[in-house]
Amino acid sequence: MRWGLIGASNIAANHMIGAIRAAGGEIRSVLSASADRAASYAAQHGIPHGYADLDAMLASDDLDAVYISTTNEKHLAQAMAAIAAGKHVLCEKPLAMTVADAITMVRAAEAAGLVFATNHHLRNAGSHIAIREAVQAGRIGKVLSARVFHAVYLPPVLHGWRLDNPAAGGGVIPDIVVHDADTVRFHLGEDPAEVVAIKAASGLGQGVEDSCMSVWTLPSGVMVQTHESFTHAYATTGFELHGTEGSIVARNVMTQQPVGQITLRTEAGEAALPFADHNLYVRALNLFHAAIRGEGRPAADGVDGVKSLAVAAAVAEAAETGRRVAVNYGGI
């Protein structure tokens, strides 16, 4: 698999370049808005070519797939250009600035016969796979509620547009709520129906929210409570599922590292739930490559990305208006 990186990003440098190579892929080129940045990034990471023009990159390099990790407002045009050039696409979340734009991307790839995936890494974690398997095996009975603790401190290296640029998709809702929406959907197998929410700029956000709390209802009656933030330096992330026969309480599992602890509580007492410690991104890349070969589907496909964005959009609207908002999935 020959890859092009659309975006000379930190996530590509810290996670995706190694994962693509570990999954057997070859990175041929990288795109940046700056030619100098593209050249230096390519040299630093052993990538043959650096570009500042997307059309030139897509036309000049013999690529099979692209990984998009630019700021959110650029995803639509870049994905559509890649699809028009016949490239498979793995795109960072959120897929686009609006649900309608995300659907446009997904439908275009579908019409072209290309694989389109969303880089929702958490559903690839051994911890979340173990939780999902326990739920599906009925170990906590009928699920009644879920709680997601995803209040963290945004590292200084990631400050910038996430904290001060709503036009680029900044704010904690598009950055983290989409992850939590996908994780809840992954575990429960259904789509949130309605949400209520509040938001705040509590220390870091300038023109965007840096903290959010919301409650969602699911068609089955399950209620979900979530907390996302960029400002909590000493908090621990977590994911809880509570059912008629038991509870699953997981801590420190909403991270990019294969760490954390999961406790299963039932009438019999408490027991640790073991899980695999593989690299989340390598698993995602292996599944993406397999999907291109016609073997299965990506860990999170384009529809998954549309639906996580739709939940985040509903949370944003509910937080802005103070009203209960129905999630609009755009008919997908």
Automatic annotation (TrEMBL):
<dbReference type="GO" id="GO:0016491">
    <property type="term" value="F:oxidoreductase activity"/>
</dbReference>
<protein>
    <submittedName>
        <fullName>Gfo/Idh/MocA family oxidoreductase</fullName>
    </submittedName>
</protein>
<dbReference type="Pfam" id="PF01408">
    <property type="entry name" value="GFO_IDH_MocA"/>
</dbReference>
<dbReference type="InterPro" id="IPR000683">
    <property type="entry name" value="Gfo/Idh/MocA-like_OxRdtase_N"/>
</dbReference>
<dbReference type="InterPro" id="IPR036291">
    <property type="entry name" value="NAD(P)-bd_dom_sf"/>
</dbReference>
<dbReference type="Pfam" id="PF22725">
    <property type="entry name" value="GFO_IDH_MocA_C3"/>
</dbReference>
<keyword id="KW-0560">Oxidoreductase</keyword>
<feature type="domain" description="Gfo/Idh/MocA-like oxidoreductase N-terminal">
    <location>
        <begin position="1"/>
        <end position="120"/>
    </location>
</feature>
<dbReference type="InterPro" id="IPR050463">
    <property type="entry name" value="Gfo/Idh/MocA_oxidrdct_glycsds"/>
</dbReference>
<dbReference type="GO" id="GO:0000166">
    <property type="term" value="F:nucleotide binding"/>
</dbReference>
<dbReference type="InterPro" id="IPR055170">
    <property type="entry name" value="GFO_IDH_MocA-like_dom"/>
</dbReference>
<feature type="domain" description="GFO/IDH/MocA-like oxidoreductase">
    <location>
        <begin position="130"/>
        <end position="249"/>
    </location>
</feature>
